[in-house]
Amino acid sequence: MEEHKKEEEEPTIFNQPKIKKLPQVGKPMPQETPPLVQNDNLVPKKKSVFILWLLSTITFGIYQAIWYLKRVPEFYNLETRKQLKKKIPLTLLIVDISIIAVLIITPLTISLTDMGNFGQRISTLQLILFTLLIICALLRLFFTIYIAFVSRTIINQALEQKEISIKISGLFTLIFNFLYLQYEINRIIQDREQEPRKGPWIFLSIYILLIVLGIISNFI
């Protein structure tokens, strides 16, 4: 009876009360455990992917960086070899805010008389803003991909600690970024991580279909 009871209490990878019992990988944690690791509640939690997408849309993509900022202490508490540093999502947040600021300021530099005139002369300020926008866009592309794959590595290492051979998809991480990561976190919490992934394939099919329909509509 006691052995059966212990088997029933075996935690899933993100089970909050038992998260500290996950085996460590790589270098052992220091004897003086940082306060960040002492809270067993600091583990990834289940969230609605649709609501996350909605928040990201409403905030013009800014919520993506906020999502990663909130995951920093949770990922750290998993005690994996790879860790997500807080300065990375903070940099992404600054870049996002800069892009929105440039998009707001740029139209203010165009006079009403020059509005819609493609032959108007570009001012020095407009050139600076345009250059800044391109730089920020490239930085955002880099950081969104980089931070997503760092998070993917952390989740994969946490799965290894649980002796689960399945890996988080790199393709879906690249396409859907934090939305896909949250999808996988939800599956792990529900102990469904080894089931076939249906949601990402459905949305990828819809995404491709919309692109094809958009291309066809241009020729009609």
Structure report:
The chain is an all-alpha fold. It has one domain (36-219). Helices cover 62% and strands 0% of the residues. The protein has 9 helices and no strands. The chain has helices at residues 2-8, 35-38, 49-58, 62-76, 87-108, 124-161, 170-176, 178-189, 199-219. The termini are far apart.
- Unreliable residue runs: 5-10, 16-38
Mean pLDDT: 81
Order of helices and strands: HHHHHHHHH
The value of Rg in angstroms is 22 Å
Strand content: under 5%
The helical percent reads 55-70%
Number of helices: 9
The largest sheet, given as strand count, sense and whether it forms a barrel, is:
none
How many discrete structural domains?
1
Write down the overall geometry. Answer: globular
For the secondary structure, the number of strands is 0
Structural class: mainly alpha
Give the end-to-end Cα distance, rounded to a whole number of Å. Answer: 71 Å
Brief characterization of the structure:
With 220 residues, this protein is mainly α. It has nine helices and no strands.
Summarize the helices and strands and which ones pair or pack.
Elements: H1 2-8, H2 35-38, H3 49-58, H4 62-76, H5 87-108, H6 124-161, H7 170-176, H8 178-189, H9 199-219
Helix pairs in contact: 3-8, 4-5, 5-6, 7-8
